[in-house]
């Protein structure tokens, strides 16, 4: 992996050099990890003029092999208490003869920015923009493998929950159990706070579990994800509690399923992001649910659970091969509940079989 990280840093350095900066300071944790293999708390990465340095306030925890920084990097652990690794890195850059340092202005706070200027007044600070985030969009096969394993863990945790008795249990209890199962099966932890929504809460985007208990006849929607070696995936499913769903539940579920399938089938290299959103949205809009739709159909995943590209009506750009995204349309009807179906897929060309589905739990409307 050391060569992989070196190539990533070289690509970023080339972008910085093209904009007139001889060095870069990376502070966003996911970006630090992408370029160095690890992101100890508050660590920053200096892409220097003569060498690259990972600057940490404390020594990294090397007990977990895949959390160890790239051995090709020089590790600089600060002495003393209360120092800022970003300021320390800027001073190291000055020591390397750097006169222009590109920083992540979208992440660096005003306070840290001011502190760097005060500590290294002759250093000209420029912006690196979202260069690292752009590099992260297309994943290599090692990254996709981590996502695939995370998806398998999430599928397994969800499958086990569905085999248990659900009636009478609270949303909060079920969410906690799912997160425990994720860790039991090898996840670093949940990719985001697990959402379990029942009855009138079902299908609501970003629902935080409450003490409401599962009842017969409820819709039950679950959205969870696993983090594996830093990479985060997502899955969402909706079920019915009881012996048989009501007619309105079947109708709504079939509609959301059709929308989700339309979005999935639109994933292809070269497809416009807004067209993927439109494919799913049109199905629901034409059925009269325009006001009940979420703001997006999906988004990229990786070291963060919400990355570029964004699959929204106003999205710019097109999809590339090897880009993992979610497709997650849903409808929530206030006071009644709703449906959400969410998969993580990898964009692949038709010659390679089309989009690769990572989350494989059945999308059949199960009565539990």
TrEMBL record:
> Which residue numbers delimit the Creatinase N-terminal domain?
8-138
Chain spans, region Disordered: 191-212
Any idea of its EC number?
Answer: 3.4.11.9
GO function term, MF aspect, one: aminopeptidase activity
Q: Main EC class of this protein?
A: hydrolase
Residue intervals of the Peptidase M24 domain: 146-348
CDD domains, per this entry?
A: APP-like (cd01092)
Keywords, ordered alphabetically: Aminopeptidase, Hydrolase, Protease
InterPro entries recorded for this chain? Creatin/AminoP/Spt16_N, Creatinase/aminopeptidase-like, Creatinase_N, Pept_M24, Peptidase_M24B
Instruction: Tell me the protein's name.
Output: Aminopeptidase P family protein
According to its UniProt entry, this protein's organism is Streptomyces cellulosae
């Amino acid at each position: 992996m050391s060569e992989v990280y070196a190539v990533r840093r070289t690509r970023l350095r080339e972008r910085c050099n093209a904009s007139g900066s001889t060095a870069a300071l990376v502070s966003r944790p996911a970006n630090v990890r992408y370029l160095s293999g690890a992101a100890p708390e508050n660590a920053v990465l200096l892409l220097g003029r003569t060498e690259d340095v990972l600057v940490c306030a404390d020594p990294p925890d090397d007990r977990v092999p895949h959390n160890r920084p790239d051995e090709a990097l020089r590790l600089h652990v600060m002495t003393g208490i209360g120092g800022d690794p970003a300021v320390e890195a800027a001073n190291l850059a000055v020591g390397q003869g750097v006169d222009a340092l590109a920083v992540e202005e979208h992440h660096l706070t005003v306070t840290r920015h001011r502190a760097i200027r005060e500590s290294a007044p002759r250093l000209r600070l420029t912006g690196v923009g979202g260069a690292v985030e752009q590099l992260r969009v297309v994943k290599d096969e090692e990254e996709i493998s981590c996502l695939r394993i995370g998806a398998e863990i999430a599928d397994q945790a969800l499958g086990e929950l569905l085999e248990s008795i659900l009636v009478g249990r609270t949303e909060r209890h079920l969410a906690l159990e799912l997160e425990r199962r994720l860790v039991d099966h090898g996840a670093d932890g949940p990719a985001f706070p697990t959402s379990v929504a029942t009855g009138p809460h079902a299908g609501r985007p970003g629902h935080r579990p409450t003490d409401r208990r599962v009842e017969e006849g409820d819709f039950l929607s679950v959205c969870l994800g696993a983090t594996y070696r830093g990479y985060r995936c997502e899955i969402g499913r909706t079920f019915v509690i009881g012996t048989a769903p009501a007619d309105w539940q079947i109708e709504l579920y079939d509609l959301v399923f059709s929308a989700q399938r339309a979005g999935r089938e639109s994933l292809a290299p070269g497809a416009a992001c807004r067209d993927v959103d439109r494919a799913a949205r049109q199905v629901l809009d034409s059925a009269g649910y325009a006001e009940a739709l979420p703001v997006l159909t999906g988004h990229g995943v990786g070291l963060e659970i919400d990355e570029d590209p964004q699959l929204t009506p106003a999205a710019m750009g097109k999809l590339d091969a090897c880009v993992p995204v979610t497709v997650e349309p849903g409808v929530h009807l206030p006071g009644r509940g709703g449906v959400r179906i969410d998969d993580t897929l990898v964009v692949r060309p038709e010659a390679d079989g089309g989009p690769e589905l990572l989350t494989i739990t059945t999308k059949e409307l199960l009565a539990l």
